[in-house]
Amino acid sequence: MIYGAMKFSIGGSLKLAFRPWVEGLENIPAEGPAILASNHLSFSDSFFLPAVLDRKVTFIAKAEYFTSPGVKGKLTAAFFKGVGQLPVDRSGARGAGEAAIKSGIEVIERGELFGIYPEGTRSPDGRLYRGKPGGLARVALATGAPVIPVAMIDTEKIQPPGKVVPKLMRPGIRIGKPLDFSRYRGMENDRFILRSVTDEVMYEIMKLSGQEYVDIYATAAKRQIADAEKAAKAVKE
Questions:
Q1: How far apart (Å, rounded) are the C-alpha atoms in residues 58 and 53?
Q2: Which residues form the Phospholipid/glycerol acyltransferase domain (predicted)?
Q3: Residue pLDDT, tens place only, 181-226
Q4: Can you tell me the distance from the alpha carbon of 179 to that of 217, in angstroms, rounded to the nearest whole number?
Q5: Can you give the chain as a three-state secondary structure string?
Q6: CA distances from residue 235 to 38, 221, 224, 226 in whole angstroms, order as listed
Q7: Neighbours of 95 (CB within 10 A)
Q8: What is the distance between the alpha carbons of residues 88 and 35, in angstroms, rounded to a whole number?
Q9: Rounded CA gap, 64 and 36, in Å?
Q10: Cα(135)–Cα(60) distance, rounded to whole angstroms?
Q11: What contacts 16, CB < 8 A, 6 or more positions away?
Q12: Cα radius of gyration (the chain)
């Protein structure tokens, strides 16, 4: 009930204001479970994708969005619950990963759509980074659900990291054909299989998005950028 109302108000407003274009909507099943694996360019990705779909998509969100104190905190928590986000405590890397996997499996077992960003974090520069061989592949292999690659286009230009007020422009969404990894079902503890599945999905996302691919993790790239900025600042001082 809450999700429907929030989707109608937020989704309708997003479509009216930004007019996102979409390719491949026919690849989203009308019913039954599926994993939507997307590149991650902007905070707004988790809102634009659900806005153009008829079905509910559940994403993982950090627990802090649901536990902040005060009126603002309660409103934020209500908003994220209303748009289908699930809280995950990311205070411990391993614990966070296990919690995300468990949540994803539960969503799939309910016959719903589970959205995930294989890069693990937003791209710091618009390029596509190496997918982490954890949540995506393990949920897919544990459940046998098809993986649908998704490419968000230009959302980083609408709301770059650190910017609160979005720029009015038209983003795009390309949805690829479902990938079937059922042949590997039950092999979710084999790290070589996890890597292979993740890389195959990232390759399809790269083809859809047209992004330059960088074979390192986005988290490592962010550290490199931060270190470079720190060094440049030190030189100026």
A1: 12
A2: 34-155
A3: 999 988 988 999 999 999 999 999 999 999 999 999 999 999 998 8
A4: 23
A5: CHHHHHHHHHHHHHHHHHCCEEECHHHCCCCCCEEEEECCCCCCHHHHHHHCCCCCEEEEEECHHHHCCHHHHHHHHHHHHHCCEEEECCCCHHHHHHHHHHHHHHHHHCCCEEEECCCCCCCCCCCEECCCCCHHHHHHHHHCCCEEEEEEECHHHHCCCCCCCCCCCCCEEEECCCECCHHHCCCCCCHHHHHHHHHHHHHHHHHHHCCCEECCCHHHHHHHHHHHHHHHHHHHC
A6: 38, 21, 17, 14
A7: 12
A8: 18
A9: 24
A10: 11
A11: none
A12: 18
The token duo for 53 is 């779909």
Q: Under 8 Å CB-to-CB from 100, ≥6 apart: which residues? A: 60, 88, 116, 134, 135
